[in-house]
């Protein structure tokens, strides 16, 4: 797997001690023991010995077979191993699901990706253009709109110091009473300083605006659009934004930076489309299976909308990478103050992986990448593509 400099960008805007820690480990799988299980177990057992990493869960689909593993403890010393009932905050992986819903809207002829976003906004936003070139839907999808990373603007300032222990509390205070109307008011203050469609600038606010447009064209709440689609097309019944009181009891605890105190959950942003979706490992495996299909929805979701260089493009919120080892593959990182995750879809090897840990700091992504590199290398070595 190629380590890309742009991973820094993937981690920015929505959340981005050396000590030896002994942990009880256990893995749970839903298939019989085989070579891939051994590869995954080896990599994840190593991962949870890294500083600050308390636990990890992983879901793999490889040549149609499923593997789920849970390792470590959600809270150190409590022996509360994550399991298939554990609900995780998947952060910016939420954007990929928003992208899927946008593909559906295109296929339903509710909108076109070349449309000016103003077409779907009740108020006038003459500020959402530069030199008479308006922000288009495809610019939101490809992070080339020029809309800032977060709204309100104060969130961007807070996130510049992501690892400060008081960052989660500051975010919770900022978003406690922040609603859709507030977002649309703040949108009037946005200034586009370059022609949209060319310059990559990661924008969670752009994803929120995409959700507002989806609500407009379907006349339906975004979360209902999401849960209905997941239920009907994937059989995923445990992926949602709003949790019941009973579901909240299953929400994974987590840790921010090097703070040993459990961190509060990510605050709910308007629409929740950019980083508020929660899910379970079995549901994420269903999502991987869905993404490994070769139907029109997936082909359009993975279609490059903007090509930045020969190795990197963006689809419907998907990062598209091409290298010699893995071929062309699709990935996204997710991060909130108390968890980080990755999803990889690698058609060349009929392989998809979702990995998550209940820790979020500057080094969390690189720790997961190290485990993923080992898994990819060993799977390819033992099962080369003919």
From TrEMBL:
Catalytic reactions of this protein: a beta-lactam + H2O = a substituted beta-amino acid
One Gene Ontology term from the biological process aspect of the record: antibiotic catabolic process
Keyword match Chloroplast: no
A molecular function (GO) term: beta-lactamase activity
The organism's place on the tree of life at top rank: Bacteria
GO CC, any one term: outer membrane-bounded periplasmic space
Gene3D superfamilies reported in the protein's UniProt record: DD-peptidase/beta-lactamase superfamily
E.C. number(s) listed in UniProt: 3.5.2.6
Membrane spanning stretches: none
Pfam families: Beta-lactamase (PF00144)
Family indicated by similarity: Belongs to the class-C beta-lactamase family.
Name used for this protein in its record: Beta-lactamase
Native source species: Chryseobacterium rhizoplanae
């Amino acid at each position: 797997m190629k380590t890309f400099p742009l991973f820094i960008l993937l981690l920015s805007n929505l959340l981005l001690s050396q000590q030896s820690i002994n942990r009880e480990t256990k893995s749970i799988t839903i298939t019989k023991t085989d070579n891939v299980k051994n590869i995954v177990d080896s990599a994840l057992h190593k991962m949870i010995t890294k500083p600050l990493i308390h636990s990890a869960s992983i879901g793999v689909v490889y040549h149609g077979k499923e593997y789920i593993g849970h390792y470590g403890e959600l809270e150190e010393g409590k022996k509360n191993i994550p399991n298939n009932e554990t609900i995780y905050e998947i952060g910016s992986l939420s954007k990929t699901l928003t992208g899927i819903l946008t593909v559906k809207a295109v296929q339903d002829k509710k909108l076109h990706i070349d449309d000016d976003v103003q077409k779907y906004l009740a108020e006038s936003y003459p500020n959402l253009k530069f030199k008479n070139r308006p922000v288009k839907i495809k610019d939101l999808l490809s992070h080339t709109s020029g809309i800032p990373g977060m709204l309100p603007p104060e969130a961007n300032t807070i996130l510049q110091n992501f690892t400060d222990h008081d960052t989660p509390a500051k975010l919770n205070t900022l978003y406690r009473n922040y609603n859709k109307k507030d977002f649309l008011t703040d949108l009037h203050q946005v200034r586009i300083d370059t022609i949209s469609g060319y310059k990559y600038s990661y924008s969670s606010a752009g994803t929120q605006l995409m959700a507002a447009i989806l609500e407009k064209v379907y006349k339906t709440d975004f979360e209902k659009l999401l849960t209905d689609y997941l239920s009907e097309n994937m059989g995923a019944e445990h992926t949602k934004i709003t949790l019941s009181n009973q579901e909240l009891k299953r929400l994974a605890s987590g840790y921010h930076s090097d703070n040993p105190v459990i961190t509060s959950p990510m605050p709910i942003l308007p629409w929740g489309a950019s980083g508020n979706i929660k899910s379970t490992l079995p549901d994420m495996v269903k999502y991987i299976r869905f993404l490994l299909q070769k139907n029109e929805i997936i082909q359009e979701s993975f279609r490059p909308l903007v090509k930045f260089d020969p190795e990197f493009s963006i689809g419907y919120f998907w990062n598209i990478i091409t290298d010699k080892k893995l071929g062309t593959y699709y990935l996204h990182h997710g991060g909130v103050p108390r968890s980080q995750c990755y999803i990889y879809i690698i058609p060349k090897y009929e392989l998809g992986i979702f990995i998550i840990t209940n820790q979020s700091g500057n080094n969390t992504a690189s720790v997961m990448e190290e485990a993923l590199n080992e898994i990819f290398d060993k799977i390819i070595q033992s099962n080369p593509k003919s």
